[in-house]
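Progress report, Aim 2. The chain analyzed during this reporting quarter is listed below.
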Amino acid sequence: MPLKVHETIASLAPYVPGKPLEELQRELGLSRVIKLASNENPCGPSPKALAAISDATGSLNRYPDGSGYRLREALAERWKVSRDQVILGNGSDEIIGLLAQAFLSPGDEAVMADQTFVIYKLQAMAAHGRPIEVPLREWRHDLQAMTKAVTPRTRLLFVCNPNNPTGTMVSAAEVEALMARVPEHVIVIFDEAYYEYVRDHGFPDALQYVRQTRNVVVLRTFSKIYGLAGLRIGYGLTSPEITNYLNRLRPPFNANSLAQRAALAALEDETHVAKSRAMNETEMAKVSAGLTALGLHPVPSQANFLYFDAGKDGGEVFEALLREGVIVRHIQGRTVRVTIGLPEENQQFLHALQQVLGRSLSNKRES
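Predicted structure tokens for the chain:
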């Protein structure tokens, strides 16, 4: 008997993560491969986080603290909220899924940008909701248009700030206007995965709405600047009422012991965060200049990656770079996203891209 699957689930395309290094090495027989596809911190985790992981290995026979008490306490103190306003996730992705499960009934709507983190759309559809995609305006969220897209069926509104994949941000004034207009029945979710990389002083303080117990969720992660992507640990800051409902769905022990201990140590290592931020800023300027020298125009970014029009099919550029041992991310059409890596990785990427585009140009001349 054939499996009976809900038609919405059957229609979903699985999320495709960045290609693993080992896979490309096997496929192409390459000895050196660099991965600039998943917006990871090339500096790695904090030394304090690594020490905390080592110290925790002796108790791996025990289940983790299911409430994540110590980490939630530290996060509550850091962000000036109460502990019952903090929820931990197996990455912030998990919390996005919990929000969709908790607040979307079949036919309910989730408003989001048309070029943003794809998990919003996938989780909305998995919950049998209806994603409403609003076009970006000059690579940025058009919050005014998103507000106009809200209907009585809208339950969630996602703002990725800075936006993945474009790296752009919306300002405090724009967010203030959004919050003045959005109806009370809509939960506004600010996904701030790249918050620690932001340099623009006009970045909004979305946490003010959490402290006011508005229907707002602020998502953060330890996967980016904290360098703990492999441990899967993120968190949400929101009202006690919303965390109460999410905790009814949250799997027990979703944040593992190593992740909790490492995150707690990483949170305290301001030196490592500052070092990571400084290197990202310096190297982003170099990569941006290199792309510009190749006749490309990267979108100014507040994150740890650059988004650019490759001047030809982005899928072809992606495949050609793979053969050069460089993994980037093809977004759609001619657009590509590249993570800012270590200095030598960025140089290898720019050299490989120059070779790829050079071959492309010479091929056109020959034809």
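The radius of gyration is 21 Å. The CA atoms of residues 79 and 207 lie 8 Å apart. These observations will guide the mutagenesis work planned for the next reporting period.
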